[in-house]
Amino acid sequence: KVAIKGIERELICPACKELFTHPLILPCQHNICHKCVKEILFAFEDSFADGGSESSNQSSPRIRISASSMDRIDRINRSGTKRNSLTPRSTLFPCPSCQRDIDLGERGINGLFRNFTLETIVERYRQAARAAIAIMCDFCKPPPQESTKSCMDCSASYCNECFKIHHPWGTVKAQHEYVGPTTNFRPKILMCPEHEMERVNMYCEICRRPVCHLCKLGGGHANHRVTTMSTAYKTLKEKLSKDIEYLISKESQVKAHITQLDLLLKETECNSERAKQEASQSFEKLYHILEEKKSAALKTIDTSKNRRLEKLQTQVEEYQGLLENNGLVGYAQEVLKETDPSCFVQTAKQLHVRIQKATESLRSFRPAAETTFEDFVVDTAKQEDILGELSFHSNGLEIPEINEEQSKMYNKALISWECPGKTDSADIYVLEYHKLNKEEESVIWQKTEVCGKSKILSDLDDDSNYAFRVRGYKGSICSPWSREVIMRTPPAPVFSFLFDDKCGYNNEHLQLNPRRTSVESRAGFPLLLGSERLQVGCYTTLDYIIGDTGIAKGKHFWAFNVEAYSYLVKVGVVPSNKIQKLFHNTHDVTSPRYEQDSGHDSGSEDAFFDSSQPCTLVTLGMKKFFIPATPAAPKDPASRILPLPSCLGICLDCDRGRVGFYDAGCMKCLYECEVDCSGLMYPAFALMGGAAVHLQEPVTAKYREYHDDI
């Protein structure tokens, strides 16, 4: 048998930290006092009505609600259903034991069972704790006698004489159940909280709670697996008995673990003191170095001050000598009184030289020493940054690595990182970044704290290089900085548009996705039938599609992906006054080179073709990027063929009349040319054969979440 005083820990309510009073069983199988449930729910309603939880916490002195619990109350209030709603309202309750939000259902507290077994154990504990305090008879005339029995049917306590009077032999009351003196009276039959007139006679194995037959027939447990109460009683009692026997048989092992834990407690205390001592020594070293530097700096300043004061004091004395009847002037006045020429000349020659010097210094006055100490300013900016980063470093905390493939520079910057071990060992991450500028001598890092493993930044300048680094924190311990990664922002603000499904769109050859962000050419029977009509001198047509938004002025950038299997794709811009010509260009159907009556030779046809292009396009296909043949381009055709970037970008500068084609991954310009921007400019695309183009989506708050789902 276990001593009753040894189980006090199990009889304490997690909310009020006192012995249970009328404990209720929550759906999570934890227990809580009936009053505590009501007070916490009142705190819910007070915080919901007042818009805060501070006042409600003060108005409930019986329960101790922590700051984290009050934050959960506020969260539940924000997410819960408003009162007076037409829909059934479910009550959410934060369990103080498991810290989870428990759904109490529509009935709230009324749907919870009272834990009579726990209540009986608490009463036995109370009786053991106050054995010297007797329970008095409820029916004796003053003075009352000590009770000897308690009737569970009458819910009262009696002495021997009163019990005989109120329970006479041969009456119904004589059949009442009586126990030893107690103040804990519980009903003999456990009733269903859902159906108050029905007694529980079954046990739901899904919800792990007693239910009545109405709950099973048409209530919330209709489709649940249930068993009889006797079967559940026998099964649970056997399991509990076996578990208790196992624990008792492992008593020596438990004691060994307790001894080990006691040693660990002492070891933790010793190691913490040693760590504090080592940390103090490290800071004492820094203090000592700073004190030495401080003493040396102050000594240097004092030495310079004394030297300057000495020079200035000497200069003051010299100028005081220039006053009448003082110093040099007074002495010269006395020399002038000499009447002997030879003696006067002998003295006046040297005196005259001194007088001339004094006159020159008076004309060009200049202090003998500087009064400012600008050369003695201590620059501690770098040291302050280093000291600001001073923290505990741990080899156990993994160094995060910035994933350049998942990171992205577009309308905003998406910076993603991961740990080599694929485990989230840090509680929080700190991302730092700064703009690379050769003119700036000192680097000023901008810092932001992140709870996840990615961050979206929106305050970066266009056409600039940025350095990024990240480190992890777990409490006061931090990892070293990751390797710095340099990324470049787009050369201009990002221009957003969709594919136009109306102007010239050929739905027989091209297929748009519902969001109009992707287009794919379908090289099917329509293309074969079109080619079958022409026997000679034919090349297949290009299917054009443009953006649904035009550009009138300014500098803009957009990016897209071309599928690797694409045979032929042309990308660029087209002015609004040439869109009709683009979609009705006869030169895309047949070549006059092979027409018998064309009258064109090879050279004249090439010249005509180059001058008649309605838009500025570059050719992509077969995983290659083809630089157009221009006078400035390399003569060797092989040098004009580049690998196709995974993401391509176009930058249109209407003010300068130029368009550039970029590798959007590193923002490197591959080709740039002049373009006529006299009209409204539209993004243009052309596809032939099997090909597909996907517009780059802007970076938003849900961008990473969307792509993770993909």
From TrEMBL:
It holds the Pfam family zf-B_box. Residues 258-285 form a coiled coil. Residues 336-393 form the COS domain. GO terms for molecular function: ligase activity; ubiquitin-protein transferase activity; zinc ion binding. One of its GO terms (biological process) is spindle organization. PROSITE patterns: B302_SPRY, COS, FN3, ZF_BBOX, ZF_RING_1. It is found in: Cytoplasm, Cytoskeleton. Residues 396-492 form the Fibronectin type-III domain. It comes from the Eukaryota. Gene3D superfamilies: 1.20.5.170, 2.60.120.920, 4.10.830.40, Classic Zinc Finger, Immunoglobulins, Zinc/RING finger domain, C3HC4 (zinc finger). Keywords: Coiled coil, Cytoplasm, Cytoskeleton, Ligase, Metal-binding, Microtubule, Repeat, Transferase, Ubl conjugation pathway, Zinc, Zinc-finger. Residues 187-229 form the B box-type domain. InterPro entries: B30.2/SPRY (IPR001870), B30.2/SPRY_sf (IPR043136), Bbox_C (IPR003649), ConA-like_dom_sf (IPR013320), COS_domain (IPR017903), E3_ligase_FN3/SPRY (IPR050617), FN3_dom (IPR003961), FN3_sf (IPR036116). Residues 477-702 form the B30.2/SPRY domain. Belongs to the TRIM/RBCC family. This is TRI36 ligase. The gene is Trim36.
